[in-house]
Design goal:
There is one protein chain. Helix content is 46%, strand content 16%. Strand 6 and strand 7 form a beta hairpin. The chain is an alpha+beta fold and 413 residues long. The chain has a 7-stranded antiparallel β-sheet. A 4-stranded mixed β-sheet has the order 8-9-12-13. The protein has 10 helices and 13 strands.
């Protein structure tokens, strides 16, 4: 048990060194050059945009360097006295640092907005696109994208939780470190649970950005509520021949492309909305196998998969996505703007956040200005910007005879 405890302690130190090195790389290759450029007459990004992109990253790297310094002083090769698994402690270090790890939640809240900004700037800001491309090509980046490096802090907190769980498992209950490990683990678990609930969404957002880049889309694929459900190859039966295409099924639409340089054309010809879409089976006949038909207002066509199981998987995924999209539409009422009705039994007047309590949008984290104004969501009371609250909610007020209409944020609708 104690030998395994020593191995886990070494793993904690080694992985923290690797993590801090990754953060330092972000600071050296991306943050510092962009901040330096912001001081120039023609900056790559303005100072506000840089702050908007990296959020509280400077606080996170400061915290991580301090944690590494304490771990190295305790567990490192030059530690005096040398760390002994039988009597040595590590839980007390995490217990001291755990309260500060709540700052990761702030970084996480901003992460999706940062990915959306990167996606927009890569298409509209040639200087930024060139900077990211040239910097990402440097050997130090080891082939990883800028967005992948920004994901490092999001992935680290769940890793802390797993390491401390292992350390607790191999620490005897009578050990001097056992209580500290348990206390630190409980504090970190709260942050880790929040991260785990969102990490899949953020990794999906990275996938969407990569698809957007590969297809050459000018508009961002990142949209509130949109999820990537399935991606793969299908062969489309065209008028003159059969062409293998890359298909991407999202929660609200189907994209497909093909050819040596797959690109979605500007007319949306290869974009199929799921609102009025149907999927129909085509029975096997002779050499025509594994086929099914996709029918929509925009375009209808026949495709076939490589195997029967692949066909079944695609038809099931499409059918479920179409069904979910229709159910979602049934809960929304279209009347000039998108509205959601809250029944009397489901509506309680929210406590509004005071105007002075927030200097930035609760969802996208942008700073409020004279032109970027504050708005309250009538469902949750949070302060958001106009871009994050374009939809209206129809709610039934107990004190009013008629339903009322009010602004709702993207998280509530």
């Amino acid at each position: 048990m104690l030998s395994r405890r020593a191995q886990i302690a070494a793993e904690i130190l080694d992985t923290e060194k690797t993590y801090v090195a990754g953060l330092a790389l972000i600071e050296k290759l991306f943050v510092t050059p962009l901040l330096a450029s912001a001081q120039q007459p023609s900056p790559i990004l303005t100072r506000k945009e840089v702050r908007q992109l990296f959020a509280n990253f400077p606080d996170i790297i400061t915290l991580s360097k301090e944690l590494l310094a304490q771990l190295d002083a305790r567990l490192g090769a030059s530690a005096e006295p040398a760390w002994d698994a039988a009597t040595g402690r590590v839980g007390d270090i995490f217990l001291r640092m755990a309260p500060f790890m709540k700052m990761y939640s702030l970084y996480l809240r901003n992460f999706r907005s940062a990915l959306a900004d990167i996606s927009t700037w890569l298409g509209s800001n040639s200087a930024f696109a060139q900077f990211v491309q040239q910097t990402s090509a440097r050997p130090e980046c080891r082939g990883l994208t800028f967005q992948s490096y920004l994901l490092l802090p999001v992935q680290r907190i769940p890793r802390y939780k797993l390491l401390l769980e292992d350390m607790q498992r191999y620490t005897p209950q009578q050990h001097v470190d056992y209580a500290s490990i348990g206390s630190a683990l409980r504090m970190i678990a709260d942050v880790a649970d929040f991260v785990n609930e969102n990490i899949e969404e953020h990794e999906m957002a990275l996938s969407m950005i990569e698809i957007q880049r590969a297809l050459g889309l000018k508009e961002s694929l990142l949209a509130p509520g949109r999820r990537l459900i399935k991606a793969g190859k299908l062969t489309k039966i065209c008028r003159k021949n059969h062409q293998q295409r890359s298909f991407y099924l999202f929660s609200d639409m189907l994209l497909y492309s093909g050819g040596p340089t797959p690109r979605i054309d500007d007319t949306g010809h290869r974009r199929v909305g799921l609102e009025d879409c149907k999927v129909m089976d085509v029975p096997d006949a002779g050499d025509c196998r594994h086929q099914f038909t996709i029918i929509s207002r925009e375009k209808s066509f026949i495709v076939y998969a490589a195997t029967a199981s692949s066909k079944a998987s695609w038809m099931e995924a499409l059918s479920q996505a179409i069904l979910q999209q229709r159910r979602a539409r049934e809960t929304l009422q279209m009347d000039g703007s998108l509205k959601r009705r809250l029944a009397p039994e489901n509506f309680d007047a929210p406590v509004w956040d005071p105007d002075e309590s927030s200097e930035r949008c609760y969802i996208c984290f942008r700073d409020f200005t004279l032109f970027l104004r504050r708005h309250h969501c009538r469902a949750c009371g949070k302060i958001v910007c106009n871009a994050c609250s374009r939809k209206n909610i129809m709610f039934v007020d107990h004190a009013a005879a008629e339903p009322k209409e009010g602004r709702g944020c993207d998280q509530c609708i």
